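Problem: given the chain below (499 residues), write out its structure.
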Amino acid sequence: MLKADLKSKINQLWDKFWSGGISNPLTAIEQMSYLIFMKRLEDLDNQHLKIAEARGEKYRSIFKNNENCRWNNWKNLKAEDMLKHVRDKVFPFIKDLRNGEETLFSENMKDAVFLIPKPSLLQEAVNIIDSLNISSQNQDVQGDIYEYLLSELKTSGKNGQFRTPRHIIKMMVELINPKIGEVICDPSCGTAGFLINAYEHILRKNTSEDIIEYDEENQAHNLVGDKITKKEQWDFLRKKTFYGYDNDSTMVRIALMNMLLHGIENPQIKYADSLSKNFKQEERFDIILANPPFTGSIDKGDISDDFHNKTTKTELLFLELMFNVLHPGGRCAVIVPNGVLFGTSNAHKEIRKKILVGGQIEGIINMPSGVFQPYSGVGTSIIVFTKGSKTEKVWFYEMLSDGYSLDQKRDYLDGKGDIPEIIEKFKNKEDTEKSFSVDIDKIRENDWSLSLQRYVKRIRKKVEFDPSQDIIDRTIKEEELILKELKDLKEEVKKWNAN
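Solution.
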């Protein structure tokens, strides 16, 4: 629900970076994030000062002894002076911050590099960011500003980094239905799209309906969480709920900024390879939402000893990881390539059996192959499972449309497709023309295969035909009627000519 002027300014910012020589969208967003953080740092410091004064408390500014690093103290410098000052003073300052909320970003800044090469580009970018008035916007708009920045990744797909479509994320979050008090994790978080949507889902469920505003694509806004009345609930939601891990330091920094601008004060986003020996697999999460890397392998020597499945395929390791780190009763929704569901290797069968026997697979949604266009045409499915009770039946749904064209363009159709029906039918695992359930015994007989195609029964309506003689008689009568009409028409023409 960004206003046109804000969108226009963000588009200008992108144009400036591209024309300024930074064409890689990930690099551009990272550099923009640093500048936004510099602006937000001063705004937050001013807010904390006002709060302290109102309470009659002392406040130690994070800019103490570094006043020249305040945004307002350098934003009007000449271009050449600004570049030198930001590169040599301000950027090292934010990298070394070590007190309070600001460490959430700075902890992951050790290897960060300031890459804006031209004085004119920095000056123009600073002017645009300043004109956005980010801190004067409400929390909802602040988040939307950054989401709009990130939306450029949707059309880039650079470095293999592309975002899960927002409407698919929202569907998965709806199926899992996270609540306040549950700890949520994405072990391959990217830009933190799943975590942010989970946060917004919780806020929406706790915001009075008459307060919520919906845009033209039915996205909910003004999610203030007015029904959350206890301070400890807010503290838990904003400081102890969200955990994310990624082995790309750039994505970690982007994810942190994204979450901070959405109002999540203490996101536990860390640089880590969650498949490696350095990552401790403990049962500590209530919910996992993820779209881990589809393909690839990891060096055998780097794989955590906590895995029982002897494979180097990352898509299988991630699936076991998610099962391992869930509390009993914990829930997971994860996107997997379809090969995970029907692969015949021992590793494929073992992970499917592990989840089916050690948990309850609530549903498998088979998505059309165009969902991840234009980056990939691989067929994918969503597995929804709960750790604990044994599976008795598996509910399958064959999604035919997600509300967008399934070609390279991914044009908007209705933005919904089968999604509303999936969410509704998932509640009671109803059978429809697109969904059905399969007993665990049948799945066991088929080598634990979870391929929808193996079990689907195409429903064909029986067409009733009239007896052949009746069809012949009816055809003759129709022909006789046509001939009579032609004869009458000829008579009319003769009369008309005669007159």
